[in-house]
């Protein structure tokens, strides 16, 4: 069994092959870029497909780790008693790098050194490594 294209689809394909690629008009001293080389941003969803509060931020975390960022307190979100989840890195975040690489929904805001998701009450930023628990003054 073979697949065949309709005559109109075949005509369109031939026309596409004959059309030259569009090139950006840059100043004479700049190299010309093909449109296929344009950078595309990774879109971050507002919610996780599985309904979790943090899974939609995994591409951001993986990207930062690939850039050399080191997790501060293990490779997981740490939640405080109020429910705020924080994924901390030992280095301050380069927010401009994140803006260049990702497209964020309105519920995720970027501030100097911090990404905050107000919908899920989680954030990514520079964290403090886990400290050993200190004893209370009345404990021996």
From TrEMBL:
It comes from the Bacteria. Residues 16-26 have a biased composition (Low complexity). Residues 1-31 are annotated as: Disordered. This is Uncharacterized protein. It comes from Hymenobacter jeollabukensis.
